[in-house]
Amino acid sequence: SQTIHQWPATLVQPVGSPLSLECTVEGTSNPNLYWYRQAAGRGLQLLFYSVGIGQISSEVPQNLSASRPQDRQFILSSKKLLLSDSGFYLCAWSVRRQGMREKLFFGSGTQLSVL
Amino acid sequence: AQTVTQSQPEMSVQEAETVTLSCTYDTSENNYYLFWYKQPPSRQMILVIRQEAYKQQNATENRFSVNFQKAAKSFSLKISDSQLGDTAMYFCAFMKYNNNDMRFGAGTRLTVKP
């Protein structure tokens, strides 16, 4: 069965420090991968998605970046965090195969607090 | 761009009663998917129900059903026999067919009262 791992679960970082959040998927190949952010009490905002290694699409211009160095690994990074980067970050994956239902499977999330 | 609107920030329902959550969306696409996701206090996102736009029949999953009105671009979720465990944030979401991103509404916080 497929599983998605996201870490760390919580992170407290000072303003201006770098960031690296990692997400890996097991049990599937060539998944679509996504990073979403959820601000406190609000909906999910799509940040990045990737359809393959090295292929990243950005939805919101900001000081965050994403990379996909391996098929089932998706990394969210920042060189210098801002206070506004605080939020709950969710990694997700989806697969599109004939006969498969399209849907997103989510990781357990990372609560990032920038102080 | 597609937008998803959930006009009810908060709702409450008595245990065992029925509640309907509203969702509207805006798109020029003809083929797409619609979803309801549940986010309990654990913050884990859980798929509740999914609807393909080309299907006229409303999707159902046990106590959860939808009222999909394609012309009106409306996709409401009905929860029957509400249970305390249904207390959560509920997000409506839209995905274009053969596309790679899913768009979410702002969510509705549902509280089931004993």
Provide keyphrases for this structure:
heterodimer; A: 115 residues; mainly beta; seven-stranded mixed sheet; four-stranded antiparallel sheet; 11 strands; 0% helix; B: 114 residues; six-stranded mixed sheet; 54% strand
Structural write-up:
The complex is a heterodimer of chains A (about 120) and B (about 110). Chain A is an all-beta fold. Chain A has strands at about 5, 10-15, 20-25, 30-40, 45-50, 55-60, 65-70, 75-80, 85-95, 105, 110-115. In chain A, strands 2, 4, 5, 6, 9, 10 and 11 form a seven-stranded mixed β-sheet that branches. In chain A, strands 1-3-8-7 form a four-stranded antiparallel β-sheet, with no helix packed on it. Chain A is globular, with a radius of gyration of 14 Å. The N and C termini of chain A lie far apart (about 40 Å). The model of chain A has no long low-confidence stretch (mean pLDDT about 90). Chain B has strands spanning about 5, 10-15, 20, 25, 30-40, 45-50, 60, 65-70, 75-80, 90-95, 100-105, 110-114. Helix content of chain B is about 0%, strand content about 55%. In chain B, the strands form three sheets. In chain B, strands 2, 5, 6, 10, 11 and 12 form a six-stranded mixed β-sheet that branches. Chain B is mainly beta and about 110 residues long. The interface of A and B includes residues 44, 45, 51 and 94 of A.
Give a short synopsis of this structure.
The complex is a heterodimer of chains A (115) and B (114). Chain A is 0% helix and 57% strand.
The tally of helices of chain B reads: 0
User: Regions of chain B with pLDDT < 50 over 5+ consecutive residues?
Assistant: none
Shape of chain A: globular
Largest interface: A-B, 24 and 19 residues
Determine Rg of chain B (CA atoms, Å): 14 Å
Number of helices of chain A: 0
Helix content of chain B: under 10%
Reported for the largest beta sheet of chain A, the result is: 7 strands, mixed
Share of residues in strands of chain B: over 45%
List low-pLDDT spans of chain A.
Answer: none
Number of strands of chain A: 11
